[in-house]
Amino acid sequence: MTDDVFPADRLNRILVAVETIDESLGTLARKQQLTREEYKHDPDTQDIVERRFVKMTEAAIDIGEEILQALRPLVHEHYDFEEAGAGLGELDIDGDGADDA
Question: Which pLDDT tens digit goes with each residue over 3-57?
């Protein structure tokens, strides 16, 4: 893929999303050290874990949107999760040639 397809601002948004996922995975790894009982009795930790999963999901969707907007004509300003997944599947984004749907 060329810089024309992924200009600096688009690449930067993807990088920010990847960093969000990386930071969230680090937080979740630290929280994984808690026992089930510690987790169940700590609502603040539960909130942190839930929020990190939300942030990772949003970041993954953002990455998908950026790829879709770069590789196919803009149909929507924003794609929802289903549209992003379907669009990436149609583009065979993983390059394996298989129908991943």
Answer: 566 788 889 999 999 999 999 999 999 999 999 999 999 999 999 999 999 999 9
Q: What is the mean pLDDT of residues 79-84?
A: 63
Domain count, the chain: 1
Calculate the alpha carbon distances from 62 to 4, 12, 19, 74, 95 in Å.
Answer: 19, 12, 12, 15, 20
CB neighbour class for 62 (10 Å; exposed up to 12, middle 13-18, buried from 19): buried
Q: Is residue 22 part of a domain?
A: yes
Please classify residue 1 by burial: count the beta carbons closer than 10 Å to its beta carbon, then call 0-12 exposed, 13-18 middle and 19+ buried.
Answer: exposed
Residue-range definition of the domain harbouring residue 83: 8-90
